[in-house]
Each structure stands twice: as structure tokens, then as C-alpha cells.
């Protein structure tokens, strides 16, 4: 049929309802029965509708009421308005007959073999009720091998918005099956980009999304090589294991495409903390990346909303009910929660029991940093967990032992600041772990010693928030680290001091909640848990003559927590 994509001609599947689907939606059903009988029961209808050699009798008034197409055709001034016979081109005889029957009876029998042709004809003739019947059937028979064709057709036809949404949701839910079909290889680039950018892809890990993109590129490398960067910008590259990514790229069959990918991904890693913004530039096929100076956006460092996630509980401190303080112990046990399975399972244990440690992820691996226990001098050691190998390995140590310190991943590096050393003294020092050279790099120290602080990233900067030291107690001060000029910048202080508070950064704001501090009326009393919340809205100002930036902003009091708490977690969903 004219206008039907070739790969959709024929069928969308086996009919699930006894070979046909019946829909009821009569255009003239609301006309009083007596008037309806006078119109439909006339022995002589006022026109013929012809397709090829076959003619159908019909009423102009009924067709005009049923369809904008016929309404315009029979409008005053049109030649067809005076004709007794009109010819419809591009619609097969049986389909035209079915649509005319639908207009009069409200019943449309359509099979999965004919539904596409009927849908296209109904759309052309403006029989919207028939369009609805057809789209309802198509939504019921979606499969991984036909959904992309149905999606393409629905996007071309007006009035199929709901079917487009249903196809989109189906592809996102069945992504891993859909990408194995031949139809996936024929997707337009714009549609593929829409998919790769979706938060709702149901995948076990991000490398499956990269694999799909590479399969599409490798299908026609000569014409698609120049599109590498426009696709990779939608891949959550910080979540990928470099080793597994290298193996995947090595399997690309086209040599020039494989080399371009290797160079581009290596450049991505080599640029370290710099934010990577991919742009095709130069002549066709030149896929070199351009890198912006600001830091990597947090959005592409996080798993997709519907991706499978593994939550790891690592180490810590345990004391059972009724036990004395001295009976407590540090843990080396590790547990993993599977968000798809909905259960916790024991995983490979740490080599060393750790309490007061920091935990973060980098390139798809988990890092357990510092911490320790009485008599165990392991505060500078670091262990890394490879989920593919299901084992922990000891990696390069920090320069300084740390307990109860701040830790954060940003721009492809791990930052640690402050904390307590093995003697219990607060620290101001800071370090950055560079995975490319596998070593810890000393950074300029903070201006204030801090333990029990919170470290978070926002706006391409690190914010060291609050904490505690022997001389000042709970701290209300905040410092901001600029990795480009490698210095700490003073930030307006919070309204109250907070140790062990929770912090998260987003959209030019810091959101600070809870913590602990002595009661304001009795500074010598034991610390209490806070329920107050503060929000810092900031902008990064221009650099001064000395090269430093100014962090301008102000604190406001937020709505308080219901329960006071410290050492809590705080995330944005």
C-alpha cells in the first residue's frame, strides 16, 4: 500500500484474538433511530465511492460527518460537491469497504495482517475512530521485533500520540531484546539518540547501552563513523570499566571505526578531571573530542533511573544488644542489594576490617578507603572491588592515614580531605587519586583542620562542609576547592556549627541537613543531633588578579527534618 514502510508491509504478528479484532465507534450512533433509518434506509444513496473497478454507495452527509477529508471534499465550491461519483486513489478495495462499513455501523474488523494498511488508509481519509481501533490493536501485539516499525509508523501519523508513548515505553522496558533485532540497525540517528538519552532504559549495566550504540555504528561504518561523538555523549562513560570497555571496542569489526573509538575513549580518560563534551569537528569522519574546562556533570556519573543498581554495604562497626563498649568490633563483611531482585546477599569480604572508612565508586568499581580499628594500622590503605571478578584487591595507599574524613568522586578522580590521623589529631590535608597513573597526588591543605566533615561536589567544585576539631568544636565554616587553580576558597559560613552533617549539591545549591553540635545554651554539654536544614545558593565569580575565584552566595534556613540526625545519608532522586 502507498505510504506504508516496506518493512511493515504484511503483518505485525499473529492475530491474538481469533484472527481479527473488533472495534466499535460509530460516527452516526448518536443520531435518533428514526432519522438514522431515513438516511441509511434510502433506496437511492446520493453518491458512489469508487476504488478501481469497484463502487460503493454512500451518503455525502454521512461521510462528511465522519471524516474531515470528505467534509472538505464536499464543501461548497469543490468539484466533488456536485459529482455523483468520486474516485478514491491509493486505498485498496477491501480496506475502503471496511472503513465505509465502520462509518455506518461503528464496527471494524481488522486482523494483525491488515492493521497497518487499514491504519494508513484511516489516517489518510481522516476516519479517526478507525485510527483508534487500529492503534489499540497494535499496542496489544507489540513485540521486540516489530515495535520499532510500529513506533516509526505511529510517529508519522497524526492522532497516534498514545501509541508513540506505548512504543517508547515498550522499547525502554525491552531494550536488551529490541537492540538484537535487525530493525534496530536501521534506526534513524535521531531516534537512536532519543533512546540512548533515556533515563528509563531497563538495563543491568551501562556497558549494555554502549554495546548497542557500537553495534549500530559497526553496521554501516562508512556512513556512520562521523556520528560517534553524537552517540557517545549519551553514554554514562564514568560508569564503565575501562577494561571491559576496551574489550568491547576491540570486537568492533571495522578497523577505522575501532581505532577512532580507542583514541576517543583514551582521550576521555586521559583528560582526567576535565569535563568531556563531545563534538564532531573538521572533515567528515574526524571524531576527535573537544573538551570543555568545567568539570564533568553529575548527571552522567549516575546510573539511569530504571537501570539495575547494586547497593553495597561495606565494613563499619557492630555492637550487639547488651554488649559492653569494648565488645564492639569493626567489620570486614560486605553485603549487596540487587534493586531488580529486591534482596540482600553476602559478597566477598574486605581484606581488612574497617570502621570510619569512606566508600566511593570510580569507573564501575568500588573503593574502600582508610578507616581501621584499634591496634590495626590500616588508615592509609585502600581496597578496590571489581564486580566482574567479585573480589577485593589492595591498591596504592594514601600518603596520610585517615579516619572519619571527607571523600568524593568528581571528574574521574577520587578526593579525600581532612579526618583524623592514627593519633586522633584532626587533619587539614587533602589528596586526589588519579586512576590513570594509579597514585595519590597531594593537594593544597584546607585552611581549617576538620574531622567528621562532609565533602560534596557542586558546580565543578568541591565543598568541605562543617566538621569538628579540638580547638573550635563543631564548625560552621565551609571551604570550596577549585581543581583548575588548585586552591581552597573561603565560602560564607553556615548559621550553626555542624559535625557529621549530610550534604548534597545540585543546580548551584548546597543542601545541608542535620549533624551534631553542643546545645547553644550550654557549649560544654555533650553534642546533640540537629534537625535543622540550611541551603546555600551560590555563583562562581570571575577570577581576581591573583587567579582566585570568588564564591558568592547566601545561606537560608530550610524546612527542618522531623527527626534530628547525624552521620546520615542525603541524596537527590
UniProtKB/TrEMBL annotation:
Keywords: Kelch repeat, Repeat
Superkingdom classification of source: Eukaryota
InterPro entries found in the cross-reference section: BACK, BTB-kelch_protein, BTB/POZ_dom, Kelch-typ_b-propeller, Kelch_1, SKP1/BTB/POZ_sf
PROSITE patterns: BTB
Organism (species): Eptatretus burgeri (Inshore hagfish)
Signal peptide coordinates: none
Gene3D superfamilies, A to Z: 1.25.40.420, Kelch-type beta propeller, Potassium Channel Kv1.1, Chain A
Pfam family, one: BACK
Protein name: Intracisternal A particle-promoted polypeptide
Tagged with keyword Repeat: yes
Amino acid at each position: 500500500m502507498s505510504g506504508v514502510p516496506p518493512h511493515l508491509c504484511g503483518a505485525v504478528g499473529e492475530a491474538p484474538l481469533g484472527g481479527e479484532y473488533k472495534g466499535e465507534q460509530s460516527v452516526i450512533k448518536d443520531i435518533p433511530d428514526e432519522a438514522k433509518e431515513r438516511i441509511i434506509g434510502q433506496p437511492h444513496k446520493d453518491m458512489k465511492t469508487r476504488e478501481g473497478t469497484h463502487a460503493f454507495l454512500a451518503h455525502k452527509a454521512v461521510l462528511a460527518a465522519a471524516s474531515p477529508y470528505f467534509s472538505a471534499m464536499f464543501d461548497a465550491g469543490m468539484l466533488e460537491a456536485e459529482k455523483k461519483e468520486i474516485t478514491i486513489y491509493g486505498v485498496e478495495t477491501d480496506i475502503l469497504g471496511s472503513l465505509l462499513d465502520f462509518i455506518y455501523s461503528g464496527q471494524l474488523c481488522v486482523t494483525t495482517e491488515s492493521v497497518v494498511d487499514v491504519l494508513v488508509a484511516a489516517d489518510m481519509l481522516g476516519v479517526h475512530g478507525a485510527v483508534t481501533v487500529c492503534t489499540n490493536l497494535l499496542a496489544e501485539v507489540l513485540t521486540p521485533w516489530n515495535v520499532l516499525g510500529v513506533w516509526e509508523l505511529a510517529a508519522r501519523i497524526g492522532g497516534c500520540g498514545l501509541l508513540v508513548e506505548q512504543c517508547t515505553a515498550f522499547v525502554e522496558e525491552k531494550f536488551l531484546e529490541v537492540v538484537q533485532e535487525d530493525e534496530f540497525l536501521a534506526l534513524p540517528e535521531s531516534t537512536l539518540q532519543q533512546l540512548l538519552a533515556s533515563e528509563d532504559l531497563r538495563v543491568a549495566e551501562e556497558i549494555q547501552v554502549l554495546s548497542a550504540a557500537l553495534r549500530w555504528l559497526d553496521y554501516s561504518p562508512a556512513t556512520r563513523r562521523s556520528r560517534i561523538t553524537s552517540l557517545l555523549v549519551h553514554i554514562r562513560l564514568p560508569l564503565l570499566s575501562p577494561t571491559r570497555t576496551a574489550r568491547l571496542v576491540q570486537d568492533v569489526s571495522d578497523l577505522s571505526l575501532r581505532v577512532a573509538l580507542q583514541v576517543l575513549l583514551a582521550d576521555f580518560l586521559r583528560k582526567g578531571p576535565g569535563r568531556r563534551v563531545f563534538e564532531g569537528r573538521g572533515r567528515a569522519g574526524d571524531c576527535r573530542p573537544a573538551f570543555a574546562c568545567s568539570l564533568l556533570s553529575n548527571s552522567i556519573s549516575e546510573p539511569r533511573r530504571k537501570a539495575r543498581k547494586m547497593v553495597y554495604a561495606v565494613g563499619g562497626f557492630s555492637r550487639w544488644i547488651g554488649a559492653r563498649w569494648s565488645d564492639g568490633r569493626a567489620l570486614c563483611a560486605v553485603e549487596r542489594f540487587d534493586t531488580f531482585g529486591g534482596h540482600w546477599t553476602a559478597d566477598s569480604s574486605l581484606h581488612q576490617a574497617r570502621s570510619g572508612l569512606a566508600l566511593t565508586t570510580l569507573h564501575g568499581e568500588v573503593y574502600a578507603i582508610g578507616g581501621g580499628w584499634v591496634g590495626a594500622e590500616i588508615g592509609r590503605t585502600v581496597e578496590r572491588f571489581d564486580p566482574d571478578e567479585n573480589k577485593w584487591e589492595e591498591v596504592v595507599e594514601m600518603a596520610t592515614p585517615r579516619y572519619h574524613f571527607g571523600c568524593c568522586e568528581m571528574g574521574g578522580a577520587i578526593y579525600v580531605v581532612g579526618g583524623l590521623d592514627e593519633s586522633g589529631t584532626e587533619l587539614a590535608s587533602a589528596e586526589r587519586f588519579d586512576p590513570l597513573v594509579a597514585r595519590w597526588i597531594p593537594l593544597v591543605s584546607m585552611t581549617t583542620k576538620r574531622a567528621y566533615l562532609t565533602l560534596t561536589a557542586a558546580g565543578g567544585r568541591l565543598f568541605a562542609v562543617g566538621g569538628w576539631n579540638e580547638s573550635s568544636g563543631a564548625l560552621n565554616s565551609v571551604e570550596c576547592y577549585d581543581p583548575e587553580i588548585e586552591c581552597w576558597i573561603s565560602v560564607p559560613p553556615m548559621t550553626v556549627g555542624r559535625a557529621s552533617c549530610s550534604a548534597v549539591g545540585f543546580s548551584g545549591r548546597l543542601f545541608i541537613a542535620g549533624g551534631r553540635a553542643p546545645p547553644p545554651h550550654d557549649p560544654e554539654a555533650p553534642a546533640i543531633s540537629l534537625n535543622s536544614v540550611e541551603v546555600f545558593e551560590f555563583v562562581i565569580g570571575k577570577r581576581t588578579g591573583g587567579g582566585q575565584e570568588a564564591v558568592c552566595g547566601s545561606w537560608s534556613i530550610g524546612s527542618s527534618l522531623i527527626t534530628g540526625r547525624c552521620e546520615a545519608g542525603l541524596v537527590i532522586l
